[in-house]
Every structure is written in structure tokens, then in C-alpha cells.
Amino acid sequence: MRIKFNLAKNKKANIPIILFVIGIFLVCSFALLTFFISDFKLTNSFVGVDLMRLLHKDIDEYKFYVNQGVNSNTIGKTLGVLIDSSGKKYFYYEKNHTVITPKIGSSWSKEELLFSVTYYVP
After folding, report:
1. How far is residue 75 from each of residues 50, 60, 63, 119, 120, measured CA to CA in Å?
2. Angle at the Cα of 7 from the Cα atoms of 3 and 13, rounded to 5 degrees
């Protein structure tokens, strides 16, 4: 017994199958695009965690040196402590992000502040 397969016999079923395959491809592409966009937003939303960890490390180091009796001016120069106009000492950290936008007649990129933290030390 021999079975012949004739693909041209059922022409009406080809169009729904093609539309189904194209639809599945579009849904999968949209899902991947959504994951990429959410990953980018999630990455930028946790920018401050690293800066806060660095700040806490420097605060602990500052307090350690103060407890050991080291001169505060020496500590300030070593750890990068800043002094404002009123004479208060503080740590300042910021994270910037370069945004590229095509504009005619001006710069294409600009710095945008994502996160900053200021901590005054005693």
C-alpha cells in the first residue's frame, strides 16, 4: 500500500497557517523587546546602591581614623572630604549618565544626573 502526499490539494489551509506563524513571530518579538526595555529601566533604577555602599565604606573609614586620633585634615585629604562655605565637612558622590539626542546646531550629548548623595561628617 502506497500513500501519496499531495501538498497542493489543501490550498485553503496554507493561509491560516502562515498567518499563525507570523502572529507567533510578532508576539515573541514583542515579548523580547519588552524584556530588553524593562532590563534597561531596572538597571538604571538601582544606580544609588553602589554609591551608598561606597559612602558607607568611607564613613566607616573616616570614623575609624577619628577614633585612632588621626588629624581630621589629613583624613579629609586622604578620603576626599569636601568643605562647604560654612566650614562643614561632607562626602559627596554622584552618578551621571550621558544622553545622546540628535539636535541641529548644538551638542548631541549631555550629562544627566541619575543619583547624588551628600553626607555631613562630624
Report:
1. 22, 12, 10, 15, 14
2. 125
Q: 89 - beta bridge partners?
A: 83
Residue 27 has pLDDT above 90, yes or no: yes
95-117 average pLDDT score: 76
The per-residue DSSP string of 20-40 comes to HHHHHHHHHHHHHHHHHHHHH
Cα–Cα dist 14/19, whole Å = 9
pLDDT at 56 over 80: yes
How many CB atoms sit inside 10 A of residue 65's CB? 17
Asked if residue 39 lies in contact with residue 99, where contact means CB atoms within 8 angstroms, the answer is: no
pTM of the model: 0.55
Domain boundaries, the chain: 7-120
